[in-house]
Amino acid sequence: MSHPTHLLGFPRVGAKRELKTLLENHWQGELDEASLLQGAKELRQKHWLLQKGAGVELSPVGDFSLYDHVLDAQLLVGAAPPRFGFDAATLTTAQYFELARGNAAQPALEMTKWFDTNYHYLVPEWRADTAFAAQPERLLSQIREARALGVAAKPALLGPLSLLWLGKAKGEPFDKLSLLPGLVAAYRELLAALRAAGAEWAQIDEPILALDLEPEWQDAFAPAYAQLSPSAPKLLLATYFGDVSAHAALLKSLPVAGLHLDLIRAPEQISAFLPDYPADKVLSAGIIDGRNIWRADLSALLARLRPLAETLGNRLWLAPSCSLLHSPFDAAAETALDPELKTWLAFAVQKLNELKTLKRGLEEGRAAVSDELAGSDFARSQRQTSPCIHNPAVAERLAALPANADRRASAYPVRAKRQQAWLKLPPLPTTTIGSFPQTPAIRASRAAFKKGELSAADYRQAMEQEIELAIRRQEVLGLDVLVHGEAERNDMVEYFGEQLTGFAFTAGGWVQSYGSRCVKPPIIFGDVGRPAPMTVDWARYAQSLTAKPVKGMLTGPVTILQWSFVRDDLPRSAVCRQIALALNDEVRDLEAAGIRVIQIDEPAIREGLPLKRADREGYLAWAGEAFRLSSRGVDDATQIHTHMCYSEFGDILPAIAALDADVITIETSRSDMELLTDFGRFRYPNAIGPGVYDIHSPRVPSASEIRTLLDKALKVIPAERLWVNPDCGLKTRGWPEVDAALAAMVQVSLELREQLAQTA
Hints:
Blueprint: H1 18-27, H2 33-53, E1 59-61, H3 69-76, H4 93-101, E2 111-113, E3 120-122, E4 125-126, H5 137-148, E5 153-158, H6 160-166, E6 168-169, H7 180-196, E7 201-205, H8 215-228, E8 234-238, H9 248-253, E9 258-262, H10 270-273, E10 282-288, H11 298-312, E11 316-320, H12 339-342, H13 348-364, H14 370-385, H15 392-399, H16 412-423, H17 440-450, H18 456-477, H19 494-497, E12 501-504, E13 511-514, E14 517-519, E15 523-529, H20 536-544, E16 551-555, H21 557-562, E17 565-566, H22 572-592, E18 597-601, H23 616-630, E19 639-644, H24 653-658, E20 663-666, H25 674-682, E21 687-690, H26 703-714, H27 735-759
Parallel strand pairs: 1-5, 4-6, 5-7, 7-8, 8-9, 9-10, 10-11, 15-17, 16-18, 18-19, 19-20, 20-21
Antiparallel strand pairs: 2-3, 12-15, 13-14
Helix pairs in contact: 1-2, 7-8, 11-13, 17-18, 22-23, 26-27
GO molecular function, one term: methyltransferase activity
Binding site for 5-methyltetrahydropteroyltri-L-glutamate: 17-20, 113, 517-518, 563, 607
Binding site for L-methionine: 433-435, 486, 601
C-alpha cells in the first residue's frame, strides 16, 4: 500500500539566504538581470533535487518567488494594478520589483500579514473594471525545468476565491465577488495550459476556508470549482492554518481530486471528513508541523495515521501541515547549538526525513523504522525532563502578582497632562519609530565583535559613535522626540532574546518575512527571565548627548512571543506573561535611569489574533494583559508608546485601546490613511501617530504627499493628540533617503503648526 508524500511549499531563501544576496545585489546594481534570473533558477532547482533525494514524490512548482507568491498569483491572471501602467503580458523583471517596492511615480503595493504568520504579502488591488487574462508561462517554464531534472512536479497556485478575498477594492465601492466570473475564466485557461503541459496534479490553495467566511463567499466555491475542474489537471484543494470542518460537506462535494487538511493546527477536524469521504478523492494529511521547529513525536503520529491508512488505503497522502516557507532550512548546520537542544529540533530538511519515516512506517510497519522511532522517543523524553526548562522562581513571581497588577495608576487624560508638563512638546510632535540605517560599518563592527576580532571596549566605542551620529542628525533635522538608533541591535526580537533566560539562537535559522527581508526567530525552550539590564546603558548614553527627550526602545511581549519559535509544553499565554514581567524589569530600570519616554513595540499583536472569531476574545484578553504588565508600576509622567504595523486593526480597536498606551504609532501610508477611518469612527481616546511615509520602499516621499496624508489624519484625529512619524523603523534604508524623507516630514509638520496657530 503506497502513501505518496508531497509538499505544499518549500523555503525560498536558501540554506544561506542565497535569494536575499541575489536580490539585494541586483537592486544595488551589482548583478544584472540575467545573472539574477539564472541564480534564482539554480536555487529552486537545487531545492527540487534536495526534495527528490529525501523521497518527496510530488514537489511543488510555482511556490518559489522573487518577491511574493500573492503578487505572482495576481500576475498569473494578468491583474497588474492599473495605476502603474504595466501590462502583465509583457511585464519586465524591473517592473515586477516596482510593483513590490514602488517607483518615483507610484508607492508600492500595500503589504500586510499572511493570515496569522509573520510572512507579509502584497495586497492585490481590485477595481470594478479589473480584467483578467491567463499568463501561464512562468509556471510552464518551471514545469519544464523540473521535468528535465527528473522531478515530479505539482504546480502550486493560490486559489481564485482566496486571491480575490485577500485583495482590496479600490475606486468606487463595489462587491469584489462581482469579479469572480472573469477571474474563474482566467484560472480555467491557466489550469488548461498546465494540463496541456502534462501536469497530472495541480495544488490549488484556499486558505480563507480557515476563516469565518460570509455565506456569499462560501456559496461561491461550488459554482467556481464546477467551472474549473473539467479542463484542469487533477486538483488537490489545500487548506491550512485552522479548522475547516464547518465546510466538510461542501469540500467533500466539490469536483476536485483531493483535499489537504492541516492536522497539526486542527487535528480534531478529521472526524468531520472521514464519514462518507468520497471514494474518488485522496486525502492529504498535514501531519508534520510546518510552522514550528520541534521534532515530531513520530510514534504518536504513526499511531494516529494507522486508522486513516486502514480507512483510505492508497488515497491517504502525507505532507507537512502547510508550506515549509515558515520553517528554517536545516538544523544540521547549527554546529554551535547546545547538543541536547539540537536533538529536539526539526527544520525543513529534517521535516522531509520525518515525512519519509512516517511513509515507510505506514507501508512497511513499525519495525522498519524502529531506529527512527527510538530516536524520536528518546528526544521527547529528554526534553520533558531536562532541568534547563523550568525555573521555579519565574512561576512563583507570576503567582504572586496582585489583582489589577497590569493597570496604570491614573487614566490617560491625567497622565497626558503630567507628561506634557515636562515634555513641553509642540503640536504635531515629530519622532521616528526607533531604528536608523544599519550601515555596512555597523554590521562589520558587530560581526567582528562576535568573532572576537574586536574588543568589548572598541565595540562599545564604535556603537557610541553611531549613537552620537544618530542623535546629532535628528537634532539637525529638528525632530522633537529622539531615538538612539539601535545601532547595537541585530534584530528587534533576537537582541532581547539573547539577554533573556529560556531563549536559544541559531546561526542560520532564517525565515523569509517579505522580499529579501529575513528574520532569525529565537527559540523559546524554557522559562523566561531577565538576569541584567539590556538597553539601559545605551539609552542613558544617548540621553546624555541631548536636552531633547530620548525614547527607550523595547520590543513588546506579544511580538517577542509571535516572532519566536515557542515551546509547546506551556500555553502561549503563560509564556507571554513570563516575557512581560522580564520586560517590566527593564522598563523600571529605564525609568530610574531618567528615560521617561519608553516605546514598547507590538507590531505582531494583530498577527496573533486567532483566525476564528470565537477564539479571539480570550487571546486579546491575555495579550492585552501582557502588554500592560510590561509597563506596570511606572509613574503617570512616564510616557508609554507602542508601535504596530502591516496589519488591519479595525476589528480589534477596543482591544488596542485597552492596551492604554499613551501614544500609538501605526503604519498607514501604503493604505493612504485608510486605517485612520476606523480609528476616527471608534474615537480612539489616546494619542496616535499615523505613519506618513512607507519605509519599506526606497522612494523618498515629497512634502506634498506627506501633507496630503496629514491633512487626512487631521480630519479624524484632533491635533492635540496627533503625532507625526514614518510607518516603521529605518534600519533597512540608507542615510541619504532617510535624511531627505525626514526633512520633508519635519517641514510639513512645521507648516501645519503655523497653520494651526493662525486658526486657533
